[in-house]
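Re: the pair you flagged

First of the two:
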Amino acid sequence: MARLSRWIEIILGAFFLVSAGAKAIDMDGFGALVSAYNVVKEPGLVRASSYLALISEVILGAALLGGWRFKGLTHILTAGMTAVYSGLIAYAWQVHGLEDCGCIPGLINLGPVESLIKNVVLLAMLFYVWYATRPKDGDAAPRVSLKSPAALTALAATLLITVLGVVDVATRGSNSSALQPVGEADVDRPFAPFVFKADGIDFDLGTGEYLVAFLNATCEHCQDSVPGLNDLANSDELPPMVSLMIGADIEVDDFLVNTMPEFPLQQIEMLTFMSFMETAPPRLYLIRDGQTAHIWDWSEDPPTIETVAADAGAAALATD
């Protein structure tokens, strides 16, 4: 029983460290997924929540992998974290239609049902490990070793994930292509500060009518949506389209090569991007003179030309 519980403990620790590593590699993308839960929307809180989740998984995953139980406290805290995640997933799924929990972004895309089942399994494993290793009367205090292979692996993984997080912060600041909005947005005209040139075209989103696609350069769903968005961009029935997107310069370059969008792209900062999100990207806005006229979200394919034209017409009638 002790040997089995130790192997389960190692598997759990490795799982949480892999999950944290996937988040650390793309904190922008993970932040967008956190925002999609609609629990915190203020950009600073979204970023803080993202790093809190990362740090929690690193610390608890390393403790599990290294066998540092602290009289069962590690198992209890990990179970509590998993239960909190489960509650957030259930809430976002039922209230806001969450489709991707962001548990292991970039590696495994899990829907809410699969995520909740996974968490139930994790909680059962944690309970078994806690029960098998709980201190008993008369037991000597467990020794905490930093020299075992599992402990050394835990320390190395923690260092690696920390480095990935630091690199993410540093490279985000060096993204020279990201747009700095002109002036302050207001509630009624949130797009008014966006004035820029993309593909040789001058855009002033505070004046005129546009379709604005919000995309994440590393999001597979966003990449798969480009052909449908190209159809919208090439339609004479619809306003001109531009994309506001997040991603490092090299990620945007890869996005361009792999998807060949037929509409201009402009990078923006993650915090600004997330302020326009209620679900995970992609998301399409119809805007008029800086104001939101209509929003489209989709789980598979983008809306058709006919759908966008009909919704745009209805939105115009509603504002007349």
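Second of the two:
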Amino acid sequence: MDPDKLEKNRQRLLQEIEVDAFETRKRTGRRKFSDKVMSAMANVPRHKFMAPDEARFAYINRPQSIGHGQTISQPYIVALMTDLLDLTPKDRVLEIGTGSGYQTAVLSSIVAEVYSVETIAPLADAAGLRLKNLGYENAHVRHADGYEGWPEEALFDAIIVTAAPPRFPEALTQQLANGGRMIVPVGRPHEPQTLYLCSKNDDGELTKKKVLPVAFVPMVESLK
């Protein structure tokens, strides 16, 4: 794809994300996203996380299929979920649902370490290789059951879930450090889903806040 056209499409997408952020400000509490999040959105090459024949769609503000019944999330949603976590450069983040690795790369551009769990083995293998080849050395990917998280590396400063479980996964909430934040879409398959922002206080108590309606693929147990 022509590099100039690619860059034009990328810039248009960034403008669309800014518009979406402003239009949803009453629900999300964010009229604009932080500079570090928008910088990550600008610099991560989304087209590298899609099949070559799908790259022309990479900078359209909508989810795209990546095979195996999974999707690469809508860029606005990626930016929103990342921004709501209020990440810092020292943070260690758990991601559930690596997919193609795009959200992983965005996180890796902001924080110290990302531990990403993917339930579908071919996706996990491809994403791990892709992230390594693109230079995201602080991204760690493994094939496992997302409901179990990554207990060997807990506790995490933030947790992001990019598929919808029917209820809050207890194992994940236990792997969130006190003072940490978790963003997760919750809802049963074929029913309305809601994006929740959860915060754990210094006493280990978890509070949950509804953000906005969303549509994610279901969170499933580990597949071969």
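Residues 3-214 form a domain with the Rossmann fold fold (CATH 3.40.50.150).

-B.
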